[in-house]
Each structure stands twice: as C-alpha cells, then as structure tokens.
Amino acid sequence: MSLSGYEHGSSFVHRASPGLKIVSLIILGTLLFVVPRIELSVAALAGIILLYLLARISLKTAWAQLRPAMWVLLLIFIVQVFLHHWTVGVLVVVRLVSLLLLASLITFTTRTSDMIDALEKGFGWLYYFGVNPGKVSLALSLALRFIPVLASITGEVREAQKARGLDKSVIAIAVPVIVRTLKMADDISAAIDARSYDPGFEKKKSNSK
C-alpha cells in the first residue's frame, strides 16, 4: 500500500496552493468548533462534497474514507443523544465528518513534497525557538497522509474479518489495524533512515557558508 493518496488531476482544487488548503482546514476546523451551529456544519459538509465533485474525485472514494469510522461516529452520536440532545449528536457527527473529508481531500489533491514544503515555510519561525520546522512539517504531512491510509487499512481488515464472521467484533478489527499501522510506521521510519533524510540539513548547510 502506498502512503501517498494523491490522485492526479488538473482541477482548480489540485492547482490550489498547498498552504491555502492547510490554512483552510485550520480555519474551517476552528469555525466549526467555535460556532456550534448545525446549519454551518451542514453547509460546510455540502461545500466539501462539491469540492470532491469539482476535483473529479468520486463520492465512492469519499465514502471509503468514512465507512471505517461509521461505528465510532454512531457511538459518538448515541452518547450525545443520552447526554444532551439528538441535535447535538447530529452537530458533532457532521462536524467530524466534514473535517475528515476535507483532510482526505487535501491528501488526494496535494503531493506530499508540496505539502512538506508549504508546512516548512509556514513553520520557519520555529527556528528562533530551536525547533526544526522541517521535522515538524514532515510529521504533520505524514499525519494527514495517514487519514485515508488508516481508512483503507480498516476497510481491508473488516472485509477479511467478515469472511471469518468477526466483522462485528471491535477487538478483532482493532488489533490487526493497530498492528498493521505500527508496522507501516516502522517501515516508513526505516525508509527515512535508509535515505539519510534530514529536513534540517540544507538549512544547516546554508548557515555554515
């Protein structure tokens, strides 16, 4: 399985600046949590679905990102209904679905290298605090990339366990997903070490001149 979920395209969503996409995700996430309004969350979700269509990414692909999380979303909805009201449950679920779909859309329409470069430029000020922005950007870009990958892994594990009649068992699904995720993270770490990748190398090199 490839870590990159990038799907080639020429839409304006693909051509948009990686920095703009990341900032949009941050702004939308902030607004959805600061302004707890169902109509805002539904409008955001509708807008994100429209962006999928404009980017020519099928709704089937979008659904594939949500399907593994449906049981979790259902549990969250039930808890909110018991603790508060069904409208609160709808708000929370729609809000989480919107953020999940938007984060996935960013990974589908942005190359990993472009995302890392954009994040590194945005975090350039961290150098003044002794923090390497290259490593921070790498960590954040990998975190975004893991969203669709984890969804895919969960779907594969569920299908495999369904053949064994274990698709209703949370443990039977969670344990293989965790193991595969840790294995993938270890493989990525080994690949980075094998290539001697150091996000701060060029910066150190230029400062030494």
TrEMBL record:
Main location: membrane
Membrane topology term: Multi-pass membrane protein
InterPro entries per record: ABC/ECF_trnsptr_transmembrane
Recorded coiled-coil stretches: none
Organism whose genome encodes this protein: Photorhabdus heterorhabditis
Family to which this protein belongs: Belongs to the CbiQ family.
Localization per Swiss-Prot or TrEMBL: Membrane
Swiss-Prot/TrEMBL keywords: Membrane, Transmembrane, Transmembrane helix
Protein's name in the database: Energy-coupling factor transporter transmembrane protein EcfT
A Gene Ontology term for the protein's cellular component: plasma membrane
Pfam families with a match to the protein in the record: CbiQ
Top-rank lineage group of the source organism: Bacteria
Transmembrane segments: 12-34, 40-59, 66-83, 89-108
